Each structure stands twice: as C-alpha cells, then as structure tokens.
Amino acid sequence: MTMGRLTVLSFLIVCGFLLWTVPATAAEPALQIKKIGGYYVGGKEVVLSGLPVVEKSFTQGGPIRKVDPNGEFEAGQMYVQFVQLAKPKAKYPLLLWHGGGLSGSTWENTPDGREGWQMFFLRQGHDVYVSDAVERGRASWARFPEINSSDPIFRSKLEAWEGFRIGPKYSADKTKREAFPGTQFPTEAFDQFTKQSIPRWVTSDPMTQAAYNTYIASFTKGSVPLVHSQAGNFAIQAALANRQNVKALVLIEPSGTPNPEKTDLTPLKDLPQLFIWGDNIDKSPSWTAYNANVRKYYEALKKMDAPVTWIDLPAMGIKGNSHMIYMDKNSDQVAKIVQDWLTKQGLMQPAKK
Amino acid sequence: MTMGRLTVLSFLIVCGFLLWTVPATAAEPALQIKKIGGYYVGGKEVVLSGLPVVEKSFTQGGPIRKVDPNGEFEAGQMYVQFVQLAKPKAKYPLLLWHGGGLSGSTWENTPDGREGWQMFFLRQGHDVYVSDAVERGRASWARFPEINSSDPIFRSKLEAWEGFRIGPKYSADKTKREAFPGTQFPTEAFDQFTKQSIPRWVTSDPMTQAAYNTYIASFTKGSVPLVHSQAGNFAIQAALANRQNVKALVLIEPSGTPNPEKTDLTPLKDLPQLFIWGDNIDKSPSWTAYNANVRKYYEALKKMDAPVTWIDLPAMGIKGNSHMIYMDKNSDQVAKIVQDWLTKQGLMQPAKK
Predict the structure, then answer these.
(1) Which of A205, A333, B4, B86 has the fewest CB atoms within 10 Å, counting from its CB?
(2) Low-confidence ranges of chain A (pLDDT < 50)
(3) Do B140 and A60 touch (CB under 8 A)?
(4) Per the CB < 8 Å rule, is A198 touching B138?
(5) A143 C-beta neighbours (distance < 10 Å), count
(6) Which value does ipTM take for this structure?
(7) Looking at residue A353, what is its pLDDT?
(8) Which chain B residues touch A103 with a CB distance below 8 Å?
(9) Does B119 contact A35 at a Cβ distance shorter than 8 Å?
(10) Which string of DSSP letters, residue by residue, matches B311-329?
C-alpha cells in the first residue's frame, strides 16, 4: 500500500513536471473563430472654411502640391475591432476599453510578449470587442484648434513610470529607475510599453462620451464593458444612458465615476459592478484621491444593496500590482478573478449536460 | 436520356439557387486560430527639453494640473497586429500595409460592412499581419514641430472622392456627387469610409521607412507584403534592404517606386511582383503620372526577365474599380486574382495527398 501511494505520488510529480515544461502556448487548443472585423461608430461631419491653402511636397525633393485644408471631414468617431467565436460560452460580448493616453492595442500582447487580456478572455469563451476611443489610435483625431479646441498632451516616460505606480522614482538612466519592491510590472519592458502612448486632448471628453454612448446603444442584446482607468467614467455614463444594453461592468482602477451626490444612481441598483485595485495606492497622492472618490460611488451603490464588489488585491494577498494590472506579470491571475466573478454573476452560458 | 439531362440540370439549378440564397457568412466554416496579438516595432527614444510647462484641467471644471511637455518619449515606432492560423496553408505570413492617410483598419470590413481582405486571406489560409505605419493609428504620432518637423495634413472628403477615383466631381451635397459610371466603390458608404482618415505628415518618410525595414528584418523565415498606394515604395525599399526576407510583393496601385534609373534593381530580378490597377486612370492626371512612373520600374524589371506581372483590370474586362480596390464591391473578385497569382508563384503549401 505504501509503495502504491509512492508510485501514484511519483506519477503525479512526473505529470506535473511534464505540464510545467511544456510551453503554455503549445498546450492551448485552437480558437474556433466565426469572424474577425472592424468598423467605425459615432462622429459626424464637420466643415472647415477660411483656412489658408498651403504648399507642400509629398516626397523628399518632389513637386510642390497645393493642399487645401478646407472642406468636409468626419470627426468624433471611434473605432471598434471584434473577434467573434464560432461558439461563445459567454452570454454577451466583452468590450475592452483602454485608459487615457492609450489605444486598444494595450489589451493585446503584454509589453514583454505574453498573451494579454484580449486572448485570455477569447480563450475563456467571450466574443471580444476592442475599441479605440475618439482621438486615439485608429479612431483618428481631428484638427486643432479648429475642431479639438485645445492642443494635445503627450505622456512622458516619467509620468508613465510614476503615474502608473510602477515605482516611486523614474530616471532617464534606465539603470537608476526605482520600482516598488516586488512590483508585478515587467519593468524590463517599460520602454517597449511606452511605445503604446497616444497623445490625448483634455477637452474632448464630451465627444468621446457621445461616441461611447452610440457604441453601447448598438448592443441591443446586451454587453459587458471591461474598462481601465479613464474609461471607468465613460463606461458608467454609457450604462446610465443605455442601461438595458449593459449587463455588468468590470472597472479596473477607474480614475473617475459620476458624482454620487449629483447623479441619480437608481438605474444602476441591479447592475453588477466589479472594482479592482492594485498595490501602492497609498504611495500616490493622485491615486489615493481617485480611489477615495470611486469609493464614494461604490458606497452609494452599496447603500442601495446594488451587486457591487470591491477587490483590493493586496488585501487578499496579491501584492505588487501597478496601475497596468492587465499587463503586470500576474495578469492571468487577476484575469481569472474577473472571469470567476463574471461566472458568478450568471454571465456565462449554462454548461451543457 | 433527355429527361435525365433535364433532371440533372434542374438539380444543378436548385443547388445554385440554394447556394445563392444562403448568406455567404453562414456557409463559411469556423477559422482555426492559433493566436491573435499585437506589438510595436522600431522607433527610438527622443528627449524633449526647454519647453514651457503648461497648466491644464483634465476634466471639465476639474482642478488645474501642471503638464510638463519635456522628458523622454518613444517616437518612430510602428504597430503590428497578427492573426496566426492553427494550420496555415500559405508558406509565409501575408503582411497588409495601408496607403497614405489611412491605418490598418482599412483591411478589415469594407465601409459597407462586407468582409475585407484581412478575412479573405485568412480564409484562404494565410497568417495575416496588419500594421499601422509610423504616425498612423495605433502606432501613435510624435509632437510637432519638435519631432515631426512639419505639421500634419488632413484629407478632405473632396480629396478622397476625386483623388481615389470614385468619381469626377465631389459635392458637399451628398445627392450631387458624381461617381464614375459603373463605379465599383460602394458610394452609399463613402462618408462612413472617410471616418478611417488619419492625418499624415509629408516629412516623415525616412522614419516610416526605417520602421518598415526593421519590421521586415524580423521575418527571417520569409514574408509576403501585400501593399496599397503609398506603401508601394516603402515595401520595395524594405525588400531591397532585406531581400531574403521577402518572397513576393503584391502592389495594389502603388503611388511610387524607387527610381529605376538611380537604383540597382538587380537584387529584385528573381522577386515575384504583382501590380494591379483599377479603372479610370486616364481621367486622373495624378494617377496617370503615378501609373506611368511605376510602369518604368516594371519595364526595367521586365528587361531583366524578373517575374513581374502587370494587371490592368479594365483591360481584362473588370471595369469600374476605384483606387480603393480592396473595398470596392468586387473586392473578393480581385482578391481571388491575387490568391491565384500567389498560388501560381508556389507560395502555398503543396496540397496534402
């Protein structure tokens, strides 16, 4: 009997070793995809007039062409890319919305080359829609100051390092950057990550919100936005505007919400909402403030007995997450928490018997 | 016997009718996908200094924050998105490169909602890589005039309508736009199409070329760029820079090529190259000139007995194509011509017996 147990134990150890040595990707079965595509939604025609015609060469040393900046243009649209599964296991499409100064590319591979949340949730059986908000990425951007009233801002590496809580101190010298002890951010890929940065305007929120509302209005059979940072407030506002089209919200470190003292939150009283927060928030004055504001919104919903869930990762023993949770080294671990919550909310199809 | 033939004929007619009435999408089998992802390639760190700090509110009526535009930034990178099949039938990945003032989104659904060339070639068995060139879409763009020396230009609807040979006369009044007789462009979706427009710089070609070269350098096992318009010259230059990594080039209405009188084209003498041209080129002075220039490049290669193929669609009876061939109503018909040519070049795996 003892030998038998040892044999079983040895067998399990060998199995475990084999599983551990086989690359994860090799073990993944092929995804059955119905369709991949993309489209634009929202926006409208704007007319520019009275601007001076300029002369430009379109190739180095090439002939000079006159360029008339006047005329009709589209502005305020957003871009959507979808991957639809042949047999989705989720009841509704999962919509991934990026944060400030980024585009939808942020949900694909992590900067250090691992699979991002787009693939994670496809493998879990969700149709996944990744969008670029107005002015970001493939959504394109409109002329300023004629259409966007202000000029854009660009996020420096310092702002990304410190603002995203990768570490307390950035340095232009890569060897002198200080990360938080035990950070989950793949710091070796930090410079690669900053290639994702997209300029943003601070005056375009109403245009962005309008496009997100139009986008959500198209999901008449329901959707589940999973959103990051700046997109938190956009998603909650879109849910208020088209409540029946939103079946749940996953808010990854939202930087804002509607003001609970000035907003009627009653329509959200039965909307499942999940809030997830990383580590070292107390070391960042701005994130301490954002977190406290979002907490007020959460408490107001809690008071209504709304199905809201607040997850503080360090409090449950998961330490070191930056603001960029979905690209941190434990991104799959956190994605699993999100997936378990979605399952618990009844958002997956019942398993076939 | 006669009855027998009629029966067979009736059967075929019924089959044909059924095939015709079943929506094409419903008939398509699921795609077996190994992986979907994205990444950035090329670019480098740039340092900005001496710019004045500005004050901005990040939300309407919100607190004023100081924004320091100085520091380190990444610039000159491009963005790549890939769909890898579980069992590709093509020997090499197919790389789709967009033209001027557009991004990779142009290869997805057509503006009137049909499947674009990304899906067409996935269904044909190619791993498909769609990129956004430097400064376009998710590749992001760098501050001007500090990094990009000039200011960007925006394509008006007039420029798109007339420049892309949709018709001889644009009007701001949609009901008064003149299309070429029998145009294949889905004119009802023209305004939707212009939502794809991305500003461009006319001084950034060297930065764009550098990123494309780095991109092609990564395909050490070979690749087949399929490129449109402005990307024609970038692709040929990239092939000259990394000849062994490029197995064929598909050039859809390239707007330029290296000058055959000033360039050693010998490295390209065994590179299969396909040129495809739409209709009404003689009605556009600029396209007449582009076409004539590209023809010189083609003739120079032809003289070397290079495996070059020049397809003038109207000359083979396919009329009405605009410059946007891959979104014209007969886009699948032209894609099939490309696929047949790729097969003929030996670029598909031999069929299993």
Answers:
(1) B4
(2) 1-3, 6, 9, 12-25
(3) no
(4) yes
(5) 18
(6) 0.91
(7) 59
(8) 137-138, 140
(9) yes
(10) EEGGGGT-----S-GGGST
Amino acid at A84: Q
Separation in Å, CA B48 to CA A172, A199, B71: 12, 15, 5
Nearest C-alpha neighbor of B129 from the set B274, B239, B227, B248? B227
Report which of residues B110 and A54 the model is more confident about: B110
Give me the residues of A, 266-325, that contact B with CB < 8 A: none
Whole-prediction pTM? 0.92
- Closest partner CB to A86 (pick from B30, B192, B198): B30
For residue B158, the SS3 value is helix
Distance CA B161, CA B171 (A): 9
Question: Under an 8 A CB cutoff, do B132 and A138 touch?
Answer: yes
Determine the residue among B80, B138, B197, B208 to mutate to test chain A binding: the one whose Cβ has the most chain A Cβ atoms within 10 Å: B138
DSSP-H helix ranges across chain A: 2-21, 24-27, 117-123, 157-163, 190-194, 205-217, 231-241, 285-303, 331-344
Closest-CA residue to B76 (of B135, B153, B138, B143): B135
Block residue for tokens 């820079």 = B241
State the burial class of residue A34 (Cβ atoms within 10 Å of its Cβ: 0-12, 13-18, 19+). middle
Strands B224-228 and B249-252: parallel
Q: Which of A255, A253, A251, A271 is nearest to A338 (CA)?
A: A251
Compute the count of residue pairs across chains A and B with CB atoms less than 8 Å apart.
Answer: 196
Residues A67, A55: Cα–Cα separation, whole Å: 6
Residue B28's pLDDT is 85
